[in-house]
Write a structure and sequence with these properties.
Elements lengths: L5 E7 L5 E7 L5 H27 L6 H8 L6 H10 L6 H9 L14 H10 L3 E4 L8 H8 L5 E5 L5 H14 L2 E4 L20 H11 L11 H5 L1
Length: about 230
């Protein structure tokens, strides 16, 4: 089993649309540790603001209940939604977002803004490759090329949320532009459903290509080949 050090960063494009950027094959975690610590603190502050907004709206959910849902992971809106379901204030996660947590809803709080170029730089500085996570139908040639101009290395092709048309189109675009391809289940702890751990089968040559490309962002004297890393 190959273990790939990675991270997923939320960033925004020039239209203020959120995109998720994967950093894979990170080599020097110390280069990204401080920004990640800051992002985690920002997440907690955002969750506190969401809880305060819910309280003002008459929903007495607590920060303790939200953090209990998050456990040791980074807290986010899905954990607030789960706390709302557990407390009986909404029927399910969809209602939590449709009624309270979605964009322009009463308890929506924006994230601190991280530009795509800055997210890519953080990943490259840590010796990893930057991949656009689950672009789906938004992964048009125009948008991908605009992100490549900002340093993007590749696109996630295989994802449970992608249709076969999405995967075929993204695969063809990656081949045409010599972009890296990735895939994954986008697992968030579910025990069943379309996003369970291991549901997506990712070709090993995609992983090898990612590892090879990552050498561009590392000092030559500290790089280890994929074969050496497995030994």
């Amino acid at each position: 089993m190959a273990v790939v050090p990675g991270v997923e960063l939320s960033a925004v494009d020039d239209r203020n649309v959120e995109v998720h950027i994967l950093g894979l094959h990170l080599d020097d975690l110390s280069r990204i540790e401080t920004p990640l610590t800051r992002f985690q603190a920002d997440r907690v502050a955002r969750a506190e603001s969401i809880v305060a907004a819910l309280n003002r709206g008459g929903v007495p959910v607590t920060m303790e209940a939200v953090m209990a849902e998050a456990g040791p992971g980074a807290v986010g809106r899905p954990h607030v939604a789960r706390a709302l379901v557990a407390g009986g204030w909404v029927r399910d996660l969809r209602e939590a977002f449709d009624r309270w947590l979605g964009t322009d809803k009463p308890a929506y709080v924006e994230k601190p803004r991280l530009e795509i170029a800055d997210a890519v730089k953080l990943i490259h500085d840590a010796g990893g490759v930057a991949i656009w996570a689950h672009p789906g139908r938004d992964g048009t040639r125009q948008r991908v090329e605009a992100m490549v101009a900002l340093g993007l290395d590749g696109v996630e092709v295989s994802h449970p949320g992608h249709s076969m048309d999405d995967m075929n189109r993204l695969n063809a675009l990656a081949r045409h532009r010599d972009l890296l391809r990735s895939g994954g289940s986008d697992w968030h702890g579910a025990t069943d459903g379309p996003r369970v751990l291991g549901v997506m089968k990712v070709p090993n040559d995609w992983n090898e290509a990612q590892a090879a490309r990552a050498t561009r962002y590392r000092p030559a004297d500290v790089w280890r080949s994929p074969a050496e890393s497995r030994s």
